[in-house]
Amino acid sequence: MGVKRPYYLASKGPRPEGVYIRSGAANVPASDSAIIRMIRECDGDVFEDRLSMKQDLTFRYAQAEFEKRGLPLESGEIRTLGMLNPDGAFTNLGLLLSDQCPPTVKVAAFSDNGRNVFTERCEYEGSILKQLADAYAFLEAHNHYRTEFIGLERIDHNDYPAVALREALVNLVAHREYTLSGPTLVSVMPSAVEIVSLGGLPTGIEYEDLSARISMPRNRALANVLFRLELIEAYGTGIGRMRESYEGEGLSPEITVTANTFSIVLPNRNAPDARAPESAGSLPEAAMRSLADGARTRAEVQADLGVSQSTASRILADLVGSGRAMRTGSGRGTRYRLP
Fold first, then answer.
1. Out of the domains of life, which is the source (predicted)?
2. Helix, strand, or coil (residue 279)
3. In terms of residue numbers, what domain contains 240?
């Protein structure tokens, strides 16, 4: 079996068909991302610190962004930030910030919620900082507004809170798993914006922890760069700020996590029938009625309420925080019950 994970069948190697993990009472093939996580946990391997396979790098865009904010980006700063390793070679962090950054961001606008008809699409390349700026400009261009007059005062109501668009985009780019190939996807539909990033939750974080405002960035050095450029305002506040921007709207961002992806859906506040059929105030009471039957999982409460994964988790976290419910166990064994 050996002492280092992942343990695998010798005939198959460390691939999904050769690595199995427990899921309840069954053994199931591990995903590529799960295998990568096991290797990284065992070896203490950090993607940002690895030697970049490309060394002919330029930083024109990154230097311009630092200069805009009165920050230098010379050889000393490049080394301090972690863009160079002790031998003076560029790391993967340097690769991400360079004009030659391989990962991209794909954006698209659709005329229907089924995403069958494109109205616009583009793929942004270059420094990850440039991709962020280009993708946000695309979202801004598609953030329309509804105008209301109260007396002589004109009030514009944007489809999406600007802070929600910004936090969703920056956080998903900052925390994505760059060892997995593929672009970050941004989709604008009549009823919502969806941003999908590769990589599930970082090791040590569970879905229910997303409401706790804790910070465990997958890419610490990249997050530090974004913080210095004031693109991230404070660690651990992104999801809370997104949710707060929808307060009083009867709507909330929805977060879905799989083993390989992390997605955020921001509802269009001006879309017809945007409000949930059941008022937000009644959902906690419905959750309490669900727990009255005994200890339940988050998935069971979610099914009883007919809401999304993120909404169910947020409601349960609020109930636990207020003392109206208790959380027991961890991981797949997490249960919620009345005190």
1. Bacteria
2. coil
3. 105-267
323: how many CB neighbours lie within 10 A of its CB? 8
Does some domain include residue 89?
A: yes
**Can you name the residues that pair with 122 across neighbouring β-strands?**
107
Q: Tens digit of pLDDT per residue, the chain (339 long)?
A: 444 555 566 666 666 777 777 655 567 777 766 666 666 555 567 899 999 999 999 999 999 999 999 999 998 999 999 999 999 999 999 999 999 999 999 999 999 999 999 999 999 999 999 999 999 999 999 999 877 776 667 777 889 999 999 999 998 888 899 998 899 999 999 999 999 999 887 777 777 777 766 677 789 999 999 999 999 876 667 788 888 888 877 788 998 888 889 999 999 988 876 554 444 457 788 888 889 888 888 888 888 887 777 678 778 888 887 888 888 887 778 889 898
Sign, CA dihedral 106-107-113-116, equals: negative
Domain with residue 255: its CATH number is 3.30.565.60
Q: What angle do CA 193, 69, 90 make, to 5 degrees?
A: 80
Neighbours of 13 (CB within 10 A): 10
In a domain, 272, yes or no: no
**One domain, residues 241 and 205:** yes
DSSP assigned state of 188: E
User: Same domain, yes or no, for 153 and 259?
Assistant: yes
Q: Domain total for the chain?
A: 4
